[in-house]
Amino acid sequence: MALEKLRIKNLDSTGDSIDVLFNPAEYTFEDANVWEEQKHPKQKSGTQFVGRSLKKLSLELFFDTYEAGDDVRRATNKIAALLIPIPQQTRPPRCEIVWGPSKELSKDSLFVWVLESLKQQFTLFRADGTPVRARLTVSFKEYIEPSKEEKSDPKRNSFPAKTHTVHAGETLAGIAGTLWGRPADWRILAKANNIDNPLRLEPGRVLTVPAIP
């Protein structure tokens, strides 16, 4: 039975895929939640669920072209090209990672990836200096279309509820600019805290900062 090779398929280039020369001995799949510490006056600190982080896949690839006499960079440059943004687009290409006839790299093949980082180590050379052996450490991050990400996990693209203690000289517009980058949203703070005059804020007052998209 032929040995199935791990394949990295470029989803933004029809028919363009990379077959590794040697299958990895192991890989690491990372998944996590994002929590934010919430501090309230006169209360103990707590944690609030903010959303899910993007999944991450890390592995090490080995390339050896010594017997063939070829420059190993012919193979490694194909991996490095996955870091280069596509012309007329704002991102590098998306990838699918396939290992086996059933397209299963554990459960990881269910995801679309982008190459996040790449480290290349060249460890063997011909007499003229041409590299013929390389070890690549690669890290892929889950890719989700921005519109789909907002629908599936709206908390990731929102500002969670919190509190803010007023300092001397602060205004609602200034606080809104610091918190959200939108000074014009000072009315949200005024409404949430029943403030009639936004120019009169007592230092030390604790404001409720509502969650907003």
In short:
The protein has 213 residues and is α+β, with helices and mostly antiparallel strands. The chain has helices at residues 73-80, 146-152, 172-180, 186-192, and strands at 7-10, 17-19, 27-30, 33-38, 46-52, 56-64, 95-98, 113-125, 131-142, 162-165, 206-209. The radius of gyration is 25 Å and the shape is elongated.
Structural class: alpha+beta
Number of helices: 4
What is the alpha-carbon Rg in Å?
A: 25 Å
Strand order of the largest sheet: 3-6-9-8
Characterise the protein shown here.
Helix content is 15%, strand content 33%. It is of the alpha+beta class and 213 residues long. The strands form four sheets. The chain has a four-stranded antiparallel β-sheet, with helices on one face. Strand 1 and strand 2 (17-19) form a beta hairpin. Helix 3 (172-180) crosses helix 4 (186-192).
Supply the key terms:
213 residues; alpha+beta; four-stranded antiparallel sheet; three-stranded antiparallel sheet; 15% helix; elongated
Write the layout of secondary structure elements.
Elements: E1 7-10, E2 17-19, E3 27-30, E4 33-38, E5 46-52, E6 56-64, H1 73-80, E7 95-98, E8 113-125, E9 131-142, H2 146-152, E10 162-165, H3 172-180, H4 186-192, E11 206-209
Antiparallel strand pairs: 1-2, 1-7, 3-6, 4-5, 6-9, 8-9, 10-11
